[in-house]
Amino acid sequence: MNPLHSEILDILKEDAKKSAAVIATMLDRAEEEIEQAIADMEKDNIIVKYATVVNWSKVASDKVTALIEVQITPERGRGFDALAERIYLYPEVKAVYLMSGSYDLQVEIEGKSLHEVASFVSNKLSTLESVISTKTHFILKKYKQDGIIFEDHQDDHRMLVSP
Questions:
Q1: Are 125 and 107 in contact (CB under 8 A)?
Q2: What is the pLDDT of residues 107-135, one digit of tens each?
């Protein structure tokens, strides 16, 4: 990847709505050069998706998100990849990460209720042949995601009192 691509990715990571014209101005390049670079990165699957970060706590939403630690026995010849693929193909699975440490995969899922998430873990995930154990953690509140702070920070407006 060339330096121009890296600069464009840094800008788009901060704000995916920035136009090629604005990026060209920021980088002192021709707009056509930026458009071509973006098109090339989309074609090469470097830019996979443009997404919006949503503060779901501000929306009347009944979503339940859980992070699940999964210990597995790796498959001969394919390691962790085969089971990770089986897991990420479930529609409720939002992310799967190979981890170092005390467990192998971290699975992020969304459901409509605690019961739905528990049902997924007990009926689908834990029944997979290579799964040794699971540990489910429910997300109660998100404070920060993708560099975005969700808290409405209130400045302290109390009067300073000194003796």
A1: yes
A2: 999 999 999 999 999 999 999 999 999 99
**CB count, 10 Å around CB of 91?**
7
This prediction has a pTM of 0.74
CATH architecture for segment(s) 58-141: 2-Layer Sandwich (3.30)
- Backbone angles phi and psi of 56, in degrees to 5: -65, -20
Span 54-102, pLDDT tens digits: 777 777 678 899 999 999 999 888 889 999 999 999 999 999 999 999 9
Q: Where are the domains of the chain?
A: 3-43, 58-141
Reported as type and span, the H/E element at residue 95 is strand 93-98
Q: Which residue has the tokens 């009347």?
A: 60
- In 3D space, the residue among 146, 143, 149 whose CA is nearest the CA of residue 51 turns out to be 146
| In the chain, alpha helices (H) | 3-14, 20-27, 31-43, 81-88, 114-120
For the four alpha carbons of 20, 43, 84 and 89, in that order, the dihedral sign comes to positive
